[in-house]
Each structure stands twice: as C-alpha cells, then as structure tokens.
Design goal:
Layout lengths: L1 H17 L5 H15 L4 H34 L4 H11 L3 H15 L5 H18 L4 H15 L6 H10 L3 H5 L3 H29 L27 H17 L4 H16 L3 H34 L2 H12 L8 H7 L1 H5 L4 H17 L5 H13 L9 H10 L3 H26 L3
Helix pairs in contact: 1-2, 1-14, 1-17, 2-13, 3-12, 3-13, 4-5, 5-6, 5-7, 5-10, 6-7, 6-19, 7-10, 7-20, 8-13, 8-17, 8-18, 10-20, 11-12, 14-17, 15-18, 17-18, 18-20
Length: 433
C-alpha cells in the first residue's frame, strides 16, 4: 500500500511540476501532506517527518540565499564586466574565435549560478555580433547554455543543491570531486566550439565571399556599470574578496552558508557606504534568492515525508521485484545516459525530487555508493538544463534572441546529448565514478 501511495504521490508531483498552473511549492508541500494522511499517519508523525526534512536542507537553503546575494552584488559593482568586455574585443570577426569566446564569456557570466542573469549578460552582448557575421543564432544558444550547464555544477547551482538534499551532505563537499570534470568539460566544449566555428566559417564563406569585417556595436549596455550602483572601491578589492570567499569554500573550515554570509556583509561595507544603498542592493537581489530557498525548503519537506513514512523504501523494494535483475544494479547509469532526453519530459524539480531519490534507494541496495549514483545521474542530466522547455531561463533566452524553442531543440539536442555522454565517460576516466 505504501508503494502504491508513494508512486501515485510521485506521479502527481511530477505532473504538477511539469504543468504551468501550480508552482513547485504547491506540488512539494500539499501533495505529500495529503499522501501521508491517506497512508494513515497521525499529524504528530507528519510533523516529525516535516521537521526532519527541513532540518536536513536548512544549511543548503541558507547557502543559496547568501550565494545569490553575493554574486548579485558582484555583478552590480562590475567585477566581471572587464573580463567579458575583453573577451568581446579578442574574438573580433573570426567565427572560430567568436564561438570559443562565447564559451568563456558564458562560463564567467554563470559564476553566480543564475541562468537568467547569464542569458541577460550574454545574449544582448553577443547576438548583434552573431547577426553581423551571419552566424547561426541557435549556435549562440547551444554554446551559452552548455557552458552555463558545466559551471552549474558549483555548490550554489540548482542541480548541486538538489543533489546535496538527496544525499544529505554539504553541497561544497559534493562539488569538490567534480572540479576536475568541470575543467575537462570546458576544454571539451572549447574543442566543440572550435569545430562548430569552423563549420560556420565554411557555411558563411559559401553564402558570401566578401564579408564586411568592420566591428558592429556590441550593445554592451548590459555590461556597463549602472549609475545607481556606486562603488567606492577599485575592482581589485572585490576580486580579492571573491577569491577569498572561494578559498574558504575549498578550505571548508566553516559552512558554505556562513562563508557567503560574511562575504555579503563585507561586499556591502566595501562597496556601498550608506545603509540605504546597502538595503537597496539586498532588496534588489532578495527575490531570486528567496524563490530558490523556498523551493529547497519545500523539497526538504517533500523528501522528509517520503523518507520518514517509508514510501521511498517501499517503492524501492517493490521495484526490485518487478525490474529485470540484470538492469537494477545499473539503473543509475541508464538514467544518467538518458539524462538529456528526460529533460524534455521532466522538469528539473521533478527529476531531482521525484525520480532520483527512488533510483538512489534502489541501486544502493545492490551495493552502489549513493554519491556515485547521484553523480552519474546529475552529470548526465545537467548538460541538458537549458534545452528543457521547463527551464524558465531558457524562455528568457528565447525571448531575448527572438528564437523558437522547437528549432533550438532540433539544432542542439544531438550535440548536447552527445556531450552529456562524453562527460559521463570522462567521469569514469578521471575516477570520479
């Protein structure tokens, strides 16, 4: 009975998360609560499930709030602007340099873990250049989205936070072994960008023999420091502060959330001398931070109820009896290999909070390490983040570029899926899994 209730609950949550009518908060709180009542648990027991789940994700929620605030402030004071502008100057009018530069610019822009800000910075800056050079704008979306997906393995990125919730570990500890894979992935993407840039160069040459190489206005309004965001410190001060924050994350001597909390305080003091300016910056970035934090807390409640009630254990036990025995120990690898196609039918929340916990419960019963299982599934899935129709940031990118999601999927799907499979293979070669 618990398995049936758990499967129905999971199915309803997935359907609601995939739909457009209900927010993740509704799906992750109301549905599991009703399921626990139907399963016959008392209110006091459900309250204990909730408290257990919330306790396990509180540190992750705090880290997300202050990480988003910190990097938002760094964007305000223009920390990344010179790097991005310099890359725009270097790429010039060479399609190969432009595609490789796009990868680097997107990686720098996504350091805050926000897909929306990444597209807001890169699309307006690079789209005029792509149009001037008669380059395919869908290539721009492919490279920016894939580069951002690689960087999105950082602890304050959504997938890593969700994975940490499932494993009940600190996101920073989960991230450290993946750092070599991120470097390998960026090198592989630069190689792919080089290859696709050559293809574009040949295609453009066929279309037009003489291309005007005069630089276009790059429309760098998004990169300019805003007048209402005054900073009283030179950029190197903020750079040193950011490097110190990252060093503390590597060191791990204090929790990641506290590290970013201190970083936010120092960033405000250094850059905004007045209390009013400091509060304005917090108010400006608070909505993005709180949205992610509320989803994480709701997910903690959801997983707390499913775990505490025994539904996940029951589903895992019963699925073992149904699936072919040869497949079960490799189920995490199969799901990882199908990560990109799954992005087309499941939202990120549905994938991480409904599908992955069940798979993790099943394969760990066969001796598979839980961290290895989550790594494989996340690596396979994360590259497809910005091809998913359930990604709000992708719709923002499509709106900024005036492109169509159907054409984007057709152009990018095979490249992204192939890249995802290559990363899984790289993870095995590096020894991460």
């Amino acid at each position: 009975m618990l398995s049936i209730i758990g499967l129905i609950t999971t199915a309803i949550v997935v359907i609601l998360l995939m739909g457009k009518r209900f927010s993740p908060i509704i799906a992750l709180t109301i549905i599991p609560f009703l399921a626990a009542i139907v399963a016959g648990f008392e209110m006091s027991e459900i309250a204990n499930f909730y408290e257990s789940g919330i306790t396990k994700v509180m540190g992750v929620a705090v880290m997300f709030i202050f990480a988003i605030l910190y990097f938002g402030i760094m964007q305000d004071v223009g920390l990344f602007t010179p790097l991005i502008r310099k890359m725009l100057q270097i790429t010039g009018s060479n399609p190969v340099a432009i595609t490789c530069g796009t990868v680097i610019i997107a990686a720098i822009a996504h350091v805050d873990g926000s897909g929306a800000s990444t597209f807001l910075i890169t699309i307006p800056a690079l789209l005029p250049l792509y149009k001037k050079m008669k380059m395919n704008p869908y290539l721009l979306l492919l490279l920016v989205g894939t580069s951002a997906s690689i960087v999105n393995m950082i602890p304050w990125g959504g997938p890593m936070g969700r994975s940490a919730i499932i494993l009940e570990v600190d996101p920073t500890d989960l991230w450290r072994p993946l750092i070599p894979l991120q470097f390998v992935a960026l090198l592989l993407l630069l190689a792919l960008a080089f290859f696709l840039g050559l293809k574009e160069k040949k295609r453009i040459h066929k279309l037009e023999e003489n291309i005007d190489t005069e630089h276009d206005d790059f429309n760098q309004d998004q990169l300019e420091e805003k007048e209402d965001h005054p900073t009283v410190k030179p950029i190197w001060v903020n750079l040193l502060l950011t490097l110190a924050v990252i060093a503390m994350l590597f060191w791990g001597i204090i929790p990641a959330g506290f590290t970013f909390m201190i970083g936010v305080g120092l960033a405000l003091v250094l850059n905004f001398p007045q209390k009013k300016l400091q509060m304005n910056r917090l108010k400006h970035h608070a909505p993005n931070a709180l949205v992610m934090a509320t989803i994480i807390l709701a997910a903690g409640s959801f997983l707390g109820i499913l775990n505490g009630s025994g539904m996940l254990d029951s589903i895992a036990t019963d699925m073992v009896n149904v699936l072919p025995e040869a497949i079960i120990p490799e189920l995490h690898l199969i799901v990882g290999a199908l990560g990109v196609p799954l992005e087309l039918v499941l939202s990120t929340d549905a994938t991480y909070f409904a599908l992955y916990p069940i798979i993790e419960q099943i394969v760990t019963g066969y001796g598979v390490d839980a961290t290895v299982a989550i790594y494989l599934m996340m690596i396979g899935n994360i590259i497809g983040t910005f091809i998913s129709p359930f990604s709000p940031a992708l719709w923002l990118a499509l709106g900024l570029s005036g492109l169509e999601i159907g054409k984007h999927i057709r152009y990018s799907f095979l490249w992204i899926w192939g890249f995802s499979l290559a990363l899984i293979a790289a993870a095995f070669l590096i020894g991460i899994v």
